[in-house]
Amino acid sequence: MHANSRGILCYVFTLNGIFDSYLKGFYFDFHAHKWLTKEVSFPNLVYNRLPRREEEVCPSWRLFFAKKNIPIFNRQFFNKSVVHKLLEDHPVLRGFLPNTKIGFSSDGLFSMLETHSSIYIKDSNGSKGNGIFFIVKKDGGYLLKTPHEEFKHLTFDRLLDQLYFFSVARDSLIQEAVDCDERNGYRFDLRVLANYAGKRHSITGIGVRAANSGQIVTHVPNGGFVIPYDSISSDINNSELEAIVSHTGDLLSRTYGFIGEFSMDIGFRHSRPIIFEANSKPMIFDENEIQLKRVEKLINLLDENQVRSDY
């Protein structure tokens, strides 16, 4: 209702709903309490929420809106390897990164496991905990975990065979498994939502996700769960997180074009933030108050035309 009260029409459309002179839009009718469709005029601004990377590869829809001088923000998914390299080259942000090797190879894997007893392999184009492997070196062998399976007592050669069977991506990250701080026996990390407002990116809300012992990710669909932010807030340096978000948002916008909102997965080691990744299409937060603030900031972005063209 907030957008409607300000005279703003927000609607959703798919690639199949783009026509030469109009779009087929889906909008929520608050009086009928349901989604409706209708032919709509072209928007002033497009937020790219395409759910699959394959759809983004097609250049035709970008060219279509470019010819009509309609700006698009959050133009594409982030690539984990690209983002890590950007952060690694930043004088402030590099100090908040876990030890990471970009690109998968048997030599790189062996070297990282000699340095760290446990590591993650992350697909650079993975999301929501998919394309992730957890490896522990123990008892003269290796343990391999995926979000749904576990393989014990592997030799290094058998470990490689299993990873190749899972088609591990060549551009994956090999990253130390940070021994994250815990709360009540549960390992936790933060989902930090950031929006552009007031000429900079700032924190809109923070969700906390935790995992039971033995789980390799804190993503709720893969077995993680929500804990209240109040339970860990006293240990968080908010000004430090705000600085991380502001630097990251500016850096990402200069690389990917204007970013209206993004999220970051941040863990803590001895109360110091560790940046795990950034996401260009933040999840729907379980915390309703975060979602409400998020929607308001996105509407402000539309209403005040704050999208920057200098990125």
UniProtKB/TrEMBL annotation:
Highest taxon of the lineage: Bacteria
InterPro entries to which the protein is assigned, alphabetical: YheC/D
Protein name per its UniProtKB record: ATP-grasp domain-containing protein
Organism: Bacillus gobiensis
